[in-house]
Every structure is written in C-alpha cells, then in structure tokens.
Specification:
Blueprint lengths: L3 H14 L3 E4 L11 E5 L2 E7 L8 H11 L4 E5 L2 H7 L3
Parallel strand pairs: 3-4
Antiparallel strand pairs: 1-2, 2-3
C-alpha cells in the first residue's frame, strides 16, 4: 500500500520529466485545493494525492469540482497508475 508521502514525489518527478512546471502546495488561503499544481503550454492540471484506498475530504472534492467548472483539469489519485490513467491532458 502506497502512502501519500511516497506517491507525491513520484508524480512530481514524472511531471517535471515531461516538462511541466510543478508547484507542491503546502498551505493556501483557500482550504481544500489540490496538493499539486502543474503548468505547461497554457494548460493547468491540479492533482489531489491520497494514500492508497483513501478518498478526498468533502471540501477537497468540492474544490476539485469547483476548479473543473473553470475549465481546469483536476482530479485525485491514490496510486501511480490512477495518476497516469487520469492525467491525459
């Protein structure tokens, strides 16, 4: 079972290797925003990373849907495979 702490660096490494500018969020003025913001070629992707088998909290789920309404690709993942499955931009 993979933890959030080990999954996040794998995802960040993958994104950087693919040429994305990556920001790992720590504390923001808006609660519930995803853990990782990635930018490339005018595209933005926001990713909430959870430990395997865990789901986003209600506020995290709300924020993901909220930014999607603005046209931002946003999703959560709990495994490296689920990240790759959802990352298509």
């Amino acid at each position: 079972m993979e933890s959030e702490k080990t999954l996040q660096p794998k995802i960040i490494k993958h994104l950087k290797k693919e040429g994305w500018y990556v920001v790992k969020t720590i504390k923001l003025s808006v609660n519930g925003l995803p853990d990782i913001f990635a930018f490339k070629d005018g595209k933005t992707v926001m990713i909430e990373v959870k430990s395997e088998g865990k789901k986003p909290s209600k506020i995290q789920d709300f924020r993901i849907r909220e930014v999607q309404e603005y046209g931002v690709k946003a999703f959560y993942c709990d495994t490296y495979q689920s990240f790759k499955d959802n990352f298509e931009v």
